[in-house]
Design brief:
alpha+beta; WH_DNA-bd_sf; Arc Repressor Mutant, subunit A; 3-stranded antiparallel sheet; DUF4364 family protein; 6 strands; DUF4364; WH-like_DNA-bd_sf
Length: 178
């Protein structure tokens, strides 16, 4: 399929960019790895090397949120992908598209609900709770609590019950009458 290894490397880099473009959300290293390995596009070690190269070339960038690092396309990465997308074989694109269609919800569930806390002083912790949809905050709530135990408890409850709690908050805010 490829005449030389530099063509194969370029193809695999395009596939990584394509995955992030088609899924329309930022992914952690483990999520990208899951997509690549389950679609049998390349091996783990090649993927890690290519991610590093894409970062160095400024096609991808990493940001940290809720103690996780997320990869996202840069403008340069998006422009490069758009100009070279036709170089991706249709069967490879279809394989990625099919995988995303079947697994996007489970990948999205991992990244939509976020909770973290920061110690401000001996008896003050700021808890941040968020629900994100399509890279926009549906809710971003900061609470000031008095113990690390309470902060941990709130974060764990949020992770388990965020959709129900979010619906309750919306209901309370839209129906409350004094």
């Amino acid at each position: 399929m490829f005449e030389n290894s530099s063509e194969e490397t370029a193809y695999h880099k395009l596939l990584i960019l394509y995955i992030l473009y088609k899924i329309k959300m930022d992914l952690t290293n483990s999520q990208i790895t899951q997509v690549v390995l389950e679609t049998e596009m390349m091996n783990y070690f090649s993927l890690q090397q290519l991610l590093s190269q894409l970062m160095e070339s400024k096609f991808l960038k990493i940001y940290k949120d809720s103690d996780k690092e997320y990869y996202c396309l840069t403008q340069k990465g998006l422009e490069t992908l758009e100009s070279l997308m036709l170089k991706i074989p249709i069967d490879s694109a279809n394989k990625v598209d099919h995988y995303i269609k079947l697994n996007k919800e489970s990948l999205l569930a991992e990244t939509q609900v976020k909770s973290s806390f920061v110690k401000q002083s001996e008896n003050e912790f700021i808890v941040n709770l968020r629900v994100i949809e399509n890279q926009s905050n549906l809710i971003d709530l900061n609470l000031n609590v008095s113990s690390e135990k309470q902060a941990n408890h709130i974060c764990n409850n949020w992770k388990k019950n965020a959709s129900h709690m979010y619906a309750e908050v919306i209901n309370l805010l839209t129906t409350y009458k004094k």
